[in-house]
Design a protein that fits this description.
This protein is of the alpha/beta class. The longest helix has 23 residues.
């Protein structure tokens, strides 16, 4: 298959390298010094169970939009920061609409898929998340990754919702039924592609729930790690901060009610245990802070706070940490 990795940072480069090693044609879309290094020296990916150093096809967004067609790709994977989703879709929506290629989001947060679907339609939108992986650019052209690096993905908003929609339309729009069948067929082919490339992929019938379960982790550790400078292991082993991590996770689970989801305390406990026992990694928000980049606050803690406000409930720990980091961001970036 021909795959575009849009936002070829630490996570995107790891998955792209695995796919290229398995024989797929991968185009890495990046920018800046990282792009220049990949173009001149190739891409290096280091993982405890995987090593990669090869020439890659690396281009910037302008070249993609000018010299490629959407339909040239079998799958487009978005792995960029959620802070860039809106600007990407504004620049590339017309380009995306000229093809029928599915778009898989592997981004933090729960608001990317609705934006993508608004541009290209739900039938082409795949929700996804990268879990149990830490991946960062350690220097231009060089990526270091850890963890079993799973991909959980499925139809947006959900497989079972799409199936119910098709059932309701059996006496009416049969074209829609065929479109849903084609979508499920392509999803299965992508799952097979990931697994054959050694990527531990999992198909889910309820991707919205899985995205919220990951947001439980992200809101629990990302903002606090950026505020404290601690990695996930140090954060969860600190007796004071450990309790705050759990509190922010609980606040996230409550916020999910706004989207019609019921997340139990067992979901929170499972995610808390997972992050406590995972490798000691720097969160993406901590890395962004150290490198002077904008933080994904709006798509993580901001998402929780907006929904809690609309539900008229309090999220005091998330609100406190979010406010401190927001003030720091104002001082750093204006």
């Amino acid at each position: 298959m021909k795959i575009a990795i849009w936002g070829a940072g630490g996570i995107g480069c790891y998955y792209g390298a695995k796919l290229q090693t398995a024989g797929h044609e991968v185009v890495f879309i990046a920018r800046g010094k990282h792009l220049a290094a990949m173009q001149s020296e190739g891409l290096s990916v280091s993982h405890p169970e995987f090593s990669f150093h090869e020439t890659v096809c690396a281009i910037d967004q302008d070249e993609l939009l000018e010299h490629y067609l959407c339909q040239q790709f079998d799958l487009i994977i978005l792995a960029l920061k959620n802070t860039h989703t809106s600007s990407l879709l504004e620049a590339a929506c017309e380009w995306l609409q000229q093809g029928e290629t599915p778009v898989l989001s592997l981004q933090n947060g729960v608001d990317n898929e609705p934006e993508i679907a608004q541009c290209i339609g739900e039938e082409r939108t795949l929700g996804g998340l990268a879990v149990r992986i830490g991946g960062h650019i350690i220097e231009p052209g060089c990526v270091e990754a850890t963890g079993i690096a799973q991909v959980i993905f499925g139809a947006w908003p959900n497989h079972h919702n799409n199936a119910e929609q098709s059932e309701n339309q059996k006496q009416g729009d049969r074209t829609e039924i065929r479109d849903n069948s084609a979508q499920l067929k392509s999803i299965n082919s992508f799952n097979e592609m990931f697994q054959q490339a050694g990527i531990a992929s999992i198909l889910t019938d309820d991707i919205q729930r899985e995205l919220w379960r990951k947001l439980i982790i992200n809101n629990g550790v990302n903002p606090l790690s950026a505020l404290s400078g601690l990695n996930t292991r140090s954060l969860t082993q600190n007796p004071v901060l450990r309790d705050k991590v759990y509190s922010m996770m609980l606040e996230t689970a409550v916020a999910a009610e706004h989207d019609g989801l019921v997340l139990e305390q067992s979901d929170v406990d499972e995610m808390f245990e997972l992050i406590c026992n995972f490798d000691a990694i720097k969160t993406s928000m901590l890395v962004d802070k150290e490198k002077g980049r904008p933080l994904e606050l709006d798509g993580i803690s901001g998402t929780v706070l907006r929904r809690c406000q609309q539900l008229e409930i309090e999220a005091p720990v998330t609100a406190f940490v979010h406010e401190i980091l927001s003030l720091e961001e104002e001082r750093r970036h204006g």
